[in-house]
């Protein structure tokens, strides 16, 4: 029988959820659910200097929000806890000491000054900077004497001096490194906490993790991890490294540019379903050109083989397009609910029926943050230039627009029962009577009632929402401008 698939998402609490990290979590989740295994959440907080308050909550919230529900983790427990690395201190110490006994690690008492000095000398000599192994040559007695004297220490991994370490990655294939280039990295720091390089191996083993999906920045360190697995005699997990998410060919998405975190995109008015769908296809492809998948469909078809080696470029326009597709699928009530906050401070006039505005917007909105600028003419007619009456395709210009508006005015004044259909029919009658194309009447109407060329609906829809009185007022303004 195959071993149960156990995976983990192991974020460091940085205070935000980077899109690349969320994608790692998503791929891990999809892999696990497609195999019927267990998905673990582990918090990697051993870098005490980088801790940010409330950062773990951001992780819990995002996972819950996006539906990436874990089976074990700090907040729900499990048989392999604790799931927060800072609570596993004793475990790492025990294993680091064991590794010393096994001869694959050693105590190092070198001072910061000595290490700085060593690095400077290596840099000056233009040789790779790495620890020179001084403390690995201390005798057992010398080490004991220093420990007894309470000297501060770290524990370093003892790399083999010869040979090669080779491993297989599911995405990148076989990778080999010459052991001589590997640095004797610190495993346990002077504060008693492990480095990532050590903790990830200990935890993945003790938590019975079978498949590791993580960023390709860890690819080059993986041989060192494998040497640790081998030193302990542990089974090496399956590695799946994924390439970074880039803004363009040169630059990664970065928090500083405000385009890197899940929260940034939620704030910009993207729907979580669209974000999850988009990032699933960002560096992974099921083949074919289909772009829209629910999470259940993704689980059904997910296969590690579809993960690409090349970095993925984040195309916000494509996300916006996909988001628009999701917006169109919402029920009118659900869309209205989401749109409401974006009307605040933009449409304050109680005479405007916001539900009607939402109905118009839902047909053309790509992201919720576009809403405010799409509806900023309802409360007051903005200043506009009469050149807006010129539209090549509609064959309008300021002259024929004036004629149209002068004809529209009495038609509108004559409507007694202000319904959309009455308004629409009356204007169509006018078009027929004037023997012109629709655009000759409707384009000038749109400009006159909105002062804009791009609006969430046509002139008739906007006029209807504005009401008879306000429509008349704006048409009169248009006529004045054009005269
Ligand atoms: N804590 C690491 C990070 O956030 C996790 C890497 C891994 O998945 O092993 O980058």
List keywords for this structure.
483 residues; mainly alpha; two-stranded parallel ribbon; 19 helices; 11 strands; elongated; binds glutamic acid
Mean pLDDT: 95
Largest sheet: 3 strands, antiparallel
- Could you say which small molecules are bound to this protein? glutamic acid
Helix coverage percent of residues? Answer: 40-55%
Taking pLDDT < 50 over at least 5 consecutive residues as the criterion, the unreliable ranges are none
Structural class: mainly alpha
Shape: elongated
Radius of gyration: 32 Å
Number of helices: 19
Quaternary organisation of the protein chains: single chain
Proportion of beta-strand residues:
5-15%
**H/E element order:** EHEHHEHHEEEEHEHEEHHHEHHHHHHHHH
Distance between the termini: 86 Å
- The total of beta strands comes to 11
Query: Spatial order of the strands in the main sheet?
Result: 3-4-7
What does this structure look like?
There is one protein chain. The protein is mostly helical and 483 residues long. Helices cover 45% and strands 9% of the residues. The protein has helices at residues 19-35, 55-66, 89-101, 112-124, 140-148, 196-206, 222-232, 262-267, 272-280, 295-301, 316-329, 332-343, 354-364, 371-374, 398-413, 420-434, 438-450, 459-466, 468-482; strands at residues 6-9, 38-41, 105-108, 154-157, 164-169, 173-178, 186-188, 211-215, 238-242, 245-246, 312-313. Bound molecules: glutamic acid. Glutamic acid binds at residues 10-12, 44, 200, 214.
